[in-house]
């Protein structure tokens, strides 16, 4: 394997791993705010790693500049959107999940 | 087909499966914000899928489509959260 193939493989594998973490978090976490957390952090990192693999594949070209711009755009907008949605949920009066809801702690 | 292309197509398949799994949250999500978060995550995955397909099939013009899709995805989330606060929901 050439160094390029190893780098692309590592980046795509890391991206798929963090997207898997985001999907598990979206399915398993208990309320809106924790799911927002999973989607904004893990999904952004997974997308950024995979887009870095895309930029690496195109090499020295205008296309890799476009892929890098897409990466920067993702890094800025994805957490912003998650923050706006979580703020809308807070304004609508959705209560955060606590352990008291299950009758467990204390 | 080179090894890089095979790796990229494998990544596309994995991202597709993960997007389909997240559809469960869109269908079931108790609140509207859950659905918006899940749709936003699926949109992010689709942008990545388009970009990786552009690299795998060596067609750089698909990157422009990915950029436009990312813009629309962001606008949708911001618009829905804005309407939720000011008018009490769009759905």
How would you describe what is shown here?
- The complex is a heterodimer of chains A (106) and B (91).
- Chain A has helices at residues 3-28, 32-58, 62-91.
- By secondary structure, chain A is mainly alpha-helical.
- The longest helix of chain A is centred in the C-terminal third of the chain and has 30 residues, at 62-91.
- The model of chain A has no long low-confidence stretch (mean pLDDT 87).
- Chain B is mainly α and 91 residues long.
- The interface between A and B is large, with 51 and 46 residues.
Radius of gyration of chain B: 16 Å
User: Helices and strands of chain A, in N-to-C order?
Assistant: HHH
| Whole-number mean pLDDT of chain A | 87
- Radius of gyration over C-alpha positions of chain A, nearest whole angstrom: 18 Å
Multimer state = heterodimer
Secondary-structure element order of chain B, as H and E? HHH
Fold topology:
The complex is a heterodimer of chains A (106) and B (91).
Chain A: H1 3-28, H2 32-58, H3 62-91
Chain B: H1 3-28, H2 32-56, H3 62-87
Which tags fit this structure?
heterodimer; A: 106 residues; mainly alpha; 78% helix; B: 0% strand
Q: What is shown here, in short?
A:
Chain A has helices spanning 3-28, 32-58, 62-91. In chain A, helix 1 (3-28) packs antiparallel against helix 2 (32-58).
């Amino acid at each position: 394997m050439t160094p390029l193939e190893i780098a692309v493989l590592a980046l795509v594998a890391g991206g798929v791993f963090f997207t898997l973490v985001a999907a598990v978090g979206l399915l398993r976490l208990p309320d809106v705010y924790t799911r927002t957390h999973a989607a904004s952090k893990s999904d952004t990192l997974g997308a950024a790693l995979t887009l870095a693999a895309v930029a690496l594949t195109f090499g020295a070209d205008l296309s890799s500049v476009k892929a890098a711009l897409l990466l920067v755009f993702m890094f800025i907008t994805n957490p912003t959107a998650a923050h706006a949605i979580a703020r809308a949920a807070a304004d609508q009066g959705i209560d955060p999940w606590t352990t008291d809801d299950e009758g467990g702690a204390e | 087909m080179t090894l890089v292309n095979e790796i990229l197509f494998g990544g596309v398949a994995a991202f597709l499966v993960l997007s389909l799994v997240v559809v469960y949250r869109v269908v079931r999500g108790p609140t509207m914000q859950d659905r918006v978060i899940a749709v936003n995550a699926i949109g992010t995955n689709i942008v990545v899928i388009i970009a990786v397909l552009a690299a795998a099939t060596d067609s750089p013009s698909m990157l422009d489509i990915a950029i436009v899709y990312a813009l629309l995805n962001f606008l949708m989330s911001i618009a829905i959260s804005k309407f939720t606060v000011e008018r009490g929901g769009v759905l």
